[in-house]
Amino acid sequence: MGLKQSNESALNLPGSPVRDASRTQIRWLIRRDMDEVLSIERSSFQTAWTEEEFLCCLRQRNCIGTVAELDHKIVGFMIYELHKSMLRILNFAVATDFRRHGIGRQMVQRLVDKLSQQRRREIVLEVRETNLPAQLFFANSGFRAVTVLRNHFDDTCEDAYYMRYCLSGTDSDIFVPRNRISEY
After folding, report:
1. Distance CA 65, CA 92 (A)
2. Which strands form 122-128's sheet, in the order they lie side by side?
3. Does 16 have pLDDT greater than 90?
4. How does DSSP classify residue 78?
């Protein structure tokens, strides 16, 4: 998770790339978007997904890719899985120059809008322990760290925080463990 965004109320200073994030469109990722998605991926993560990893993931029946597009330019992307009772974010990033302008929050909101009391009630993801900007962004977006996954990432054996967003009023709110990271 390479997003370095903490809230959407950041100032739009003169010369800022985004003055009106509402012009951003969230749409399905298509094949011709891959070059821009890979560029964002490489600038966001030390251990970036390859094009083949993206394509392999997106070929799966339950895997969806979306992009955030502003003025015909891809400025963010999200890869997630559909499961019976939840959505799982696999990869999420916003281009460096477009962070802290509400684009990431719009992408998260798109997933939150897919939740319902009757079907999918939560969104989950894993964030590297060293990726504090992503932890803060998702915490500010309503996610809570519920556990630590030891040695979760194969490439670095780094720990991950398992974070969850629950639709308010669902039973899954009751079962959130109470420990040092659950209130993070």
Report:
1. 10
2. 25-28, 63-70, 73-82, 86-94, 122-128, 160-166, 144-149
3. no
4. E
Write the CB contacts of 99 (distance below 8 Å, at least 6 apart in sequence): 3, 4, 5
Q: Which domains does the chain have, with CATH numbers?
A: 18-114 (3.40.630.30), 119-184 (3.40.630.30)
End-to-end CA distance of the chain: 17
Q: Quick check: helix, strand or coil at residue 165? A: strand
Closest CA to 139 of 127, 152, 151, 149: 127
Q: Lowest-pLDDT range, 44-53, 60-69, 113-122, 153-162?
A: 153-162
Contact (Cβ atoms closer than 8 angstroms) between residue 161 and residue 148: yes
Average pLDDT of span 1-29: 56
Q: How many CB atoms lie within 10 A of CB 74?
A: 21
**Helix runs in the chain, H state only:** 34-44, 51-58, 103-112, 132-140
Amino acid found at 134: A
Question: Averaged over 144-173, what is the pLDDT?
Answer: 84
Q: What is the pLDDT of residues 106-142, one digit of tens each?
A: 999 999 999 998 899 999 999 999 999 999 999 999 9
